[in-house]
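#data-curation
PF: Archiving a pair of folding outputs for the training set. Convention for this channel: one message per protein, sequence first, structure tokens after, nothing in between. First:
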Amino acid sequence: MSKAEREFDIVVYGATGYTGRLVAEHFVREYGGKPGAPKWAMAGRSLDKLAEVRGLIGAPGDTPLVVADASDPGTLDAMCHRTRVVLTTVGPYQLYGSELVAACARSGTDYADLCGEPAWMREMIDAHHEHAKGSGARIAFSSGFDSIPFDLGVLMLQNEAVKRFGKPAPRVRGRVREMKGTFSGGTAASLTATMKAVAKNPKLVALLSSPFALTPGFDGPDQPAGMIPHYEDDLGRWAAPFIMATINTKNVHRTNFLRGHPWGEDFRYDEVVGLLKNPFGAKPPAPGEGPTAEERETGHYDVLFIGEMPTGEKLRYAVKGRYDPGYGSTSRMLAETGIALLASDAEGGIGTPGSILGEALVERLREHAEITFAVEE
């Protein structure tokens, strides 16, 4: 059976979890009953729980349910052979994701997740990138708040820089100006799992600290540290380290790497956050838990990118999202990444949303996720 003839367009794996349920709700809300809507299914370990969630989110009673379990690779293989795209929220991925990536690479099934675990991502790149290229599987890690606004924000700024100045900016600064929302419990669990992995294998420290950990065979120039609080005259505010910079910067450099270094092999990039009061909220929820609907609705974020040209000219580009970044917006980003993969003709391999989908995903996020991408004059 060819990929186009498979039973489903998209399977949401982990649909009974907090974030997976939000992804499924997005399909119900945005595409339910509309012409040309994707054929999608909900997957997880328990058929009873899947049926319960299907009813709770108002999905049609005939929405297919698929039983699949990370501890049973055979069920993952079977799921992959039934669908064109798998969207997974089952993390930490270093504990529960390896067999699914392998299954997608073997079967040519496209894949997107919410991973912010660079050591595991590099392990998967080394193990499966070539297999995915051969099978045609497009595998997009980090398809949520880490790292879509940053990955695509830099991409769109550079597109504009080429239009205005005839060449890309060799230096880009990512600045989180505002953010209201809850720090993801899944992200917190991933950080814990990563620290445990480092304790077992101290060699991972060098990989985690390198901006080029996800560009095998390429090691670019020294990067701005972004780790020391400092005052930025052009923005008129103090800046401090941004916890997600360690994954976002790696993905930005991988996008540049996989696209053939259109921004130059000497490209330099960093991220910091303005000194905000508790931008992620007081305490992260436990995995499987999350903010209330009202908290998701009232969240938002505003990220500014500043491209600096050798001539001294600067270009400002902003990415702004409605809904809280860790859940409300992230679930929409993952869902729309899946839709964009259906229409993509990119070659297979393990990439980033920016390298695989680029501008096409930007348009989907503008239309279906209430995220704006725009130059600031």
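PF: Second:
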Amino acid sequence: MKKFSIATLAYVLPAVASAQSINNVWDIAGFIKRILDTALPLLIAAAVVLFVYGLFQLFLASDEEKKDKAKSTVIYGVIALFVMVSVWGLVNILVGTFNLNNNTQRLPDLPSVPR
């Protein structure tokens, strides 16, 4: 678990370090979205691995106690996937609804004609 925490921090810290300045609520929401966009693929991959691991345990289990434990692992994996994808979708819906994207690009100025 310690290695997973270190790997997660190593994956998320660049997003935290790239936060320039937070001036209002919209910047905070955009900052949270950037952190979630950075960390979520890693967490979803971990949930998929947990789900597949539970399936292998279920198929290889010989007695009833091991099968029950494997079933609970599979259920926890499915619940984790559902919660993470739902939160990711909800955050993206909120960002799109309230136009919280801070990635607006400024168009270059047109050259002027000297007088």
